[in-house]
Queue: 2 jobs
Job 1
Amino acid sequence: MDLVRLIYTSVAVREMRSEDLDDILAVSLSRNAAMNITGLLVHYTETSEFMQLLEGARDDVLALFHGSIAKDPRHRSVEIFHLEDGAERLCPDWRMSFCLERHGGLKERTGLSGFVRHGELSDMRAGFARRLMIAYREEIMRRDTV
Ligand SMILES: Cc1cc2nc3c(=O)[nH]c(=O)nc-3n(C[C@H](O)[C@H](O)[C@H](O)COP(=O)(O)O)c2cc1C
């Protein structure tokens, strides 16, 4: 199977209430599981940014991204930040994990991974999401200075 890893960023069009996030997560869970797509969704509440990692079969990931996610009116400025072919899954067990980042700390909203179900994120996942977020910020800063 041709695996692909796609990371995109976007900005919510309005403040996301927990019901809004629950809706996104519920759809993501069932559809992604059906397509064997794994990943991580981070919502940065202070800036309303989303960042999502999607990994799975190339055709499925691209169809989900271009066919549904990128057209979703709940967010704008949807931009692919990273697209890598042949990558191994970073989150093989995570159907779609979800983090909220605010006040400098990552909190788990809905525990879906095999690692933690309630409370604080495991160090591993928090570290991964944070690295993604930092890489994103560095890229934005780099673009701003070019
Ligand atoms: C930030 C964000 C992330 C999303 N992530 C997923 C996802 O991982 N999987 C998914 O099926 N839908 C996801 N959605 C929802 C899709 O955009 C879409 O509403 C849903 O898949 C239903 O697709 P359809 O309108 O083509 O039927 C996400 C939406 C947003 C705003």
Job 2
Amino acid sequence: MICPVCNGMEELSSPCGVCGDSVVDEGRATDWLGPYAPYSPPEQPAALSAAGPDTTVPEDCQHAVRCPACGTFSTAAVPLLP
Ligand SMILES: [Zn+2]
Ligand SMILES: [Zn+2]
């Protein structure tokens, strides 16, 4: 399963939920919100253990997107390709 946006096969296009303009891709939300994000608090043992075998396999790639018109950050789910 691959993400067509992460692999450069497709441009992410999604309307801004606030103003309706087209948002721009800011990369994977998992990179953005993940445990290695620079602003994450370093002491979170519960979150680390939660990333174990119980983690469900995502069926789509969560991308962080930003609206250049109004500056709103949000996420967009990109369906994965087999
Ligand atoms: Zn992706
Ligand atoms: Zn907007």
